[in-house]
Design brief:
single chain, 5 helices
């Protein structure tokens, strides 16, 4: 993970990231399997000490998985950024070639290739956005289902609503009585102080 972090920070495009990614992914899968075996052993009557060890190992696995996912996303974003910059430079070189009287057909072919690459990258971004939208729609339907279940429960239990409204009335009456007692006491103290 340390080597992969260094590779992401310096972004050396030598193809080593694929080997590191597959190696890290393999090690994370092994750690997950070890945690599953430990979970099975602890649930079958292992000691409390091993239960704490299992919890710690699960937290470590979760942290490493999140960091690996974040580093992969960062590396992918850097690759896309570098590709866009390369397309922009290639477009500038094409424009310069056209201005210097280079082959017009080659310039058009280069421009078409850069547009095709940009279109492919935009398609991948759009597909990611559609996946995110699908996830959000699923979450919205889940929350809508929870809301409808809660409304069904409240409609089936009208006595709960009556009890809650009675509690609110009692609370407001208590507040009114308390404020009246406080104002009467203040008034009596004021009268006592003035007559003294």
């Amino acid at each position: 993970m340390h080597l992969y972090r260094k590779l992401v920070s310096k972004r050396a495009d030598d193809g080593a990231e694929k080997d590191l990614e597959s190696g890290i992914d393999h090690l994370l899968q092994q750690l997950k399997q070890v945690n599953c075996h430990m979970q099975a052993w602890v649930s079958s009557g292992g000691s409390e000490i091993f239960s704490h060890t299992l919890t710690r190992h699960q937290e470590i696995l979760q942290d490493l998985t999140q960091e690996f996912s974040r580093l992969c996303s960062s590396l992918q974003a850097k690759k896309e950024h570098a590709s866009l910059l390369e397309d922009f430079r290639e477009f500038g070189r094409t424009s310069l070639d056209m201005e210097e009287g280079g082959s017009y057909g080659q310039a058009l072919l280069k421009e078409h290739a850069s547009i095709s690459r940009s279109t492919g990258q935009m398609d991948s971004v759009i597909s990611q956005a559609q996946e995110t939208l699908g996830t959000l729609v699923f979450q919205r339907s889940t929350f809508g289902g929870i809301n409808s279940k809660l409304s069904n429960v409240s409609s089936r239990l009208p006595t709960v609503n009556q009890i809650l409204s009675a509690i609110k009335k009692k609370k407001s009456m208590d507040a009114i009585i308390l404020s009246l007692v406080a104002s009467v006491c203040t008034f009596l103290i004021l009268i006592y102080w003035l007559t003294k």
